[in-house]
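User: For a reading group we're discussing how well predicted structures match intuition. Take Metallo-beta-lactamase family protein. Before you show the prediction, I'll give you the sequence so everyone sees exactly what went in.
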Amino acid sequence: MLTKEIYNSASHQWFMFGRDPEKPERIIDTNQFMIKTKAHALLMDPGGIELFSAMLANVVKQVPVEQITHLFASHQDPDIISSLGLWDRALDNATLHAPWLWEGFLRHFGMNTIKFHGIPDEGYTLNLDGVSIQFIPAHYLHASGNFHVYDPRAKILMSGDVGAALEPPGMPLEVENFEEHVKLMTLFHQRWMPSNTAKNDWVERVSKLNIDKMCPQHGRIFTGDNVKRFLDWFHKLEVGTAIKTVDH
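Assistant: Thanks. Here is the predicted 3D structure of Metallo-beta-lactamase family protein, as structure tokens, for the group to look at:
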């Protein structure tokens, strides 16, 4: 599994984990992210159960396991959080921050030791050693209770399924040619994002943030001007198109 440091300052670091060549062939590739401060670490969308051993092995190279005191799940999908039951056995003092709406579903993955902190619909801010991490509402993109993570100091937005692309192995970590990358994103966003109203609300909200990197949980990272290119493209895209294919 690849480990990539994507931000480093005196206060904290961001890491990306993914592109695991040993993952089962029919399992979609996912990006996992971690923020490390002096005394804490926040592990975001830590992955499916089949990735747990690779994730644990790579995470502990960057931070002692006892320093992982916070987990985040953007929503309830198994590709990002079905490993919860195994993290529950590995961590002694951790809290899962996730949409309040999904608590009863997330507990099916196993959560006896990890504490649950439901994120209210409007979101909230988590303080990690003086670093303010914001949980930004992203409802219906694609889950009815959904959040993204924004770090104003690092200017990074972890954007969940927004910006995702399902690609073959060996692709670059960052978007290089935006127009070419659109071909890999269009169908995914049209099918998985159900609401144009929710989409446009999110674009308006996120456009007010100062973002250098937008990091989805599938595919490549958007940097620099490609962040605005994505927001402009997504705002114009019609989503929820699957209903048009149904024969009434």
